[in-house]
Amino acid sequence: MARWLSGCIVCMLFTGFALFAQEGDQAKKMLAAGSVVPGPFETYNLTGFAKGRPHCLVCRFQQRPVVMAFTKEPTEGKDAPFLALVKEMEAAVNELQDHDLAAFVVVQSPDLRLFVGPDDGKKENDSARDAKVTDDFLQRMQKYTEPFKNSVLSAYSANDPPGYHLDKNAECTLVFYSRLKVIDVQTFPEGKLSDAEVKSFFEKVKKTLTANEKK
Question: End-to-end distance of the chain based on CA atoms, in angstroms?
Answer without folding.
Answer: 38
